[in-house]
């Protein structure tokens, strides 16, 4: 396994950003950058052996700073939405920085996606790893406590991409980390993902209000457009879902287990998602709006999908949801594995 390190650019405030390319030498490779601990690129072969890009990313650092819809970003402190940009913890109310109307989305405008992480790379015969680390100070985007965070990417020779997160704090604080990669197994810009075949190991999804904040109710997927327990095209019931999918599903089972399988009939590419977290946000790129990405490629709305493994949205305000509070005597851990193959 090989690791190639290059300078990707310099931020507006003068910080150097590095790009690391991990390559199996067998057609699978990925590039990650230290801005936002971001997955910039993932390349793999199709059934004809042709290697191509399957995730969305930008060519320049300025694009990530100025117009990034979280392409491949590490999200934190809290992935997804916190209603009213506030929560009460141990009797104290915390007001967060709002960035989606009255709510906070993906950790706020200065969240983990928009900072430069420290980085270090390692390689061995069967895998290569980049470990990113960041110290989020007390009060960052309104969250309490100093938080020490690591996010690592490991590419194995089999074409598996392993994402691992860890965090420790000196004060109780919500923590919910994920990766926000956008995928199109036919290749970004090749068209919509509505013909991709999806299986979701989820018997329930979270009901949301008009602002996409969970009401607290878990709704059975049976008999609804949200039932992906048996494989079906993403677009089969699309007309019944207002504006496309942007919903958190309650993953069946506990521990490290399979969350989803996505297959692209046109290329034979297949992606399995495995994770330790209780939820997965399924998003169909509803607001991409022909955004231009690397290589001058234009990606339309519904031209990519996200499967973001995580705690449930608005968990700090929903006691019925799995607990998301990290305390000083604990370590937050989260593992997600993306297993790519060709059939």
TrEMBL record:
Reaction(s) this enzyme catalyzes, per UniProt: alpha-D-glucose = beta-D-glucose
This protein's UniProt keywords: Carbohydrate metabolism, Isomerase
Pathway: Carbohydrate metabolism; hexose metabolism
Gene Ontology molecular function, alphabetical: aldose 1-epimerase activity; carbohydrate binding
Active site: 180, 308
Binding positions (beta-D-galactose): 80-81, 180-182, 246
GO biological process: galactose catabolic process via UDP-galactose, Leloir pathway; glucose metabolic process
Tagged with keyword Cytoplasm: no
EC number of this enzyme: 5.1.3.3
Similarity comment: family membership: Belongs to the aldose epimerase family.
PANTHER family cross-referenced by the UniProt entry: ALDOSE-1-EPIMERASE, GALACTOSE MUTAROTASE
Record's protein name: Aldose 1-epimerase
Organism: Winmispira thermophila (strain ATCC 700085 / DSM 6578 / Z-1203)
